[in-house]
Amino acid sequence: MMPGIFLGSILLLIGMLSNAAGAFVGINIGTDVSSLPPASEVVSILKANEITHVRLFDTDAHMLNALSNTGIEVTVGVTNEEVLGIGQSPSAAASWVNKNVAAYLPSTNITAIAVGSEVLTSIPNAAPILVPAMNYLHKALVAANLNYQVKISTPQSMDIIARPFPPSTASFNSTWNSTIFQLLQFLRNTNSYYMLNAYPYYGYINGDGIFPIDYALFQPLSAVKQIVDPNTLFHYNSMFDAMVDATYNSIADYNFSGIPIVVTESGWPWLGGASEPDATTENAETFNNNLIRRVLNGSGPPSTPAVSINTYIYELFNEDKRPGPVSERNWGLFFNNGTAVYSLKLSNSQQISGNSSSVFCIAKQGADATKLQNGLNWACGQAQVNCSAIQPGKQCYNPDTVQNHASFAYNDYYQKMHSAGGTCDFDGTATTTSVDPSYGSCTFSGSSNSSSRTTVPPSAAFGPITPPSGASSRLQITGTGISFLAIAIALI
User: Fold this and answer.
1) What residue spans carry the Low complexity bias annotation (predicted)?
2) Which of 282, 313, 345 is the last residue of a domain?
């Protein structure tokens, strides 16, 4: 059992399994967290959920050592502060590779180096030495005979594309012509990929109402709101796809082809300030669930349908130490004690075929504990719900929280009684969802169910941050039969 880490919430987070096409979703692990769990506990979380890819923003020795012998594929980062020195000194690059890559291989499975973070827009004075830094690092990898295992690229934001819509006419800002050409040449010559940070959240809020929010959230668009490229007549069902295609077309504008794109960052903040009304839990949950579904269907954007859009979700924990607006500190899927901020999961079948048509009734996140207990008592008593599965030692007992047990009882009642007028209300403590809350061997009524279903425990998905008094929401790290999608998306 891991102190302070609610593994139950982790199990639910990303029911993300690699699909048949090989596409997978990954996650960024930021460190601007006031109470970041020890590296060993973070890695235990990754292993317990079968997460196979992560992206680090630095080369923290504790984390890299903890990742040793796990098989997890790791992208490490050259910080922006390090780029200038490396770009001016081959010896500095060699030293960096020896210290931060070669020293950990092969036990730690480092497969990529991300050179800086949005260097062209965040530290534009470093543009002339960005590609030299990448070249020096590559030569150091060659010298160490690691160049076939470790790829080098550099994440860039959408801001370096002057006019991203329509995608067919998108092109990089001419300010960066020389650097972009050198970058693309490097990526092609080293058989690497373009790292893109694509945030529909910013595309939407900066669009001043040009695009509907459904377009940013991967939601269906009505016929009158269809987004169509007038030149190619490609239909874009999401801003995410349009951003990726705009980047592919910008690359093609330089007469380069065959360079795949990996989205190194994408996500949606779940909380914002008074001037950030679209940063909500509902929107974040909708975006990330739909992002996972989109990526895991294995197809590419309209212009490049055969190349999966592999993606890293931003991010694992809320980085409460980050400056700026409230939203900057609330992109995490988990609180730093390990509880999930909201439900995020997919079964393998859902990833392929889309949303389930089933409707479930579960306890609302953050519902009043007393009301939840009353609702649970009523369901298991007067309503005669079969609550045997949530008794000690039974398959749905853990996580041992009122939230979890109430979700099971509420749903059992709803499935049996809604056709006869029964509602999913329970004094305002319940809500319906199309996301199957079943997990492991715990199957909720109404589930299409299969042993291959990947889901998250309800306490993780829907439970309170702090369990009711006397209840424990911590789970031992055991084989749950739950298989979660890798936290990073790598192109294959």
Assistant:
1) 444-459
2) 345
- Measured CA distances, 71 to 108, 172, 200, 213, 293 (Å): 7, 37, 32, 39, 25
pLDDT digits (tens, 9 = 90+) for 308-343: 999 999 999 999 999 999 999 999 988 877 677 888
Residues labelled as active-site residues: 118, 265
Q: Looking at the structure, do residues 315 and 341 belong to the same domain, yes or no?
A: yes
Answer with the one of 294, 318, 345 that is the final residue of a domain.
345
> How would DSSP label each residue in 96-163?
HHIIIIITTTTTS-EEEEEESSSHHHHSGGGHHHHHHHHHHHHHHHHHTT-TTT-EEE--EEGGGBS-
Helices (H), 339-386: 348-353, 369-380
Query: Distance (Å, rounded) from C-alpha 435 to C-alpha 178?
Result: 48
pLDDT attached to residue 49: 60
Q: pTM of the predicted model, to two decimals?
A: 0.69
Residues 247 and 330 in one domain: yes
Q: Report the range of poorest mean pLDDT among 38-47, 253-262, 380-389.
A: 38-47
Residue entry with tokens 């795949």 = 260
Question: Which CATH number belongs to the domain containing residue 202 in this structure?
Answer: 3.20.20.80
